[in-house]
Write a structure and sequence with these properties.
This protein is of the alpha+beta class. The protein has a single domain, classed as Double Stranded RNA Binding Domain (2-Layer Sandwich), CATH 3.30.160. It has helices at residues 2-8, 35-49, 135-156; strands at 28-30, 63-78, 84-98, 104-121, 124-127. A hairpin with a 2-residue loop joins β4 (104-121) and β5.
């Protein structure tokens, strides 16, 4: 029985974050983001935050990142029959980074968008390869959020 107790002492949860190290997600806890696109964006952020290093002054701080993600689709470039020929799809992320005292370090809306063509074939609409499920758009949004986080973290150091 003692053996099982001693073996279990070194076991830690797989996704536990350590605030004492500069690795992991740089001491930033990312809240869950709603919907499937939000989960994808969160995973892109976790992957990119893992690779940045922060100042030793900030290594002990506990930061929290909250993101509200919304999307919109705007039709433009209409044909003579009134059907849209082009659509602009946008993601808007309201980013809120706060410290352990709940002071907001970053409060900003960041957006990315893409335009794509709509072709009509036999009454059905088929979207081009650059449609709204484009993973590249979420990756671009994650990179823009990361750029803003880096600026804030550099100013705090």
């Amino acid at each position: 029985m003692l053996f099982l107790f001693l073996v279990g002492c070194s076991v830690r949860p797989l996704y536990q974050t350590s605030h004492e190290t500069t690795g992991g997600t740089a001491g930033i806890d990312i809240d869950i983001i709603a919907e499937r696109e939000g989960q994808k964006l969160r995973m892109y952020l976790v992957d990119t935050l893992r690779d940045i290093s922060i100042s030793p002054k900030l290594a002990h701080r506990h930061l929290r990142l909250k993101i509200d993600l919304s999307s919109s689709e705007k039709q433009y470039a209409f044909s003579t029959d009134g059907n849209a020929k082009r659509v602009k799809f946008s993601y808007v992320a309201h980013v809120l980074l706060s410290n352990e005292n709940r002071k907001n370090l970053l409060d900003r809306k960041i957006s990315v968008s893409v335009g794509y063509n709509i072709s009509h074939s036999q009454g059905e609409i088929s979207l081009s390869i650059y449609g709204r499920n484009n993973e590249t758009l979420l990756k671009e949004l994650a990179n823009k959020i990361l750029e803003n986080l880096k600026m804030v973290l550099e100013n705090e150091a």
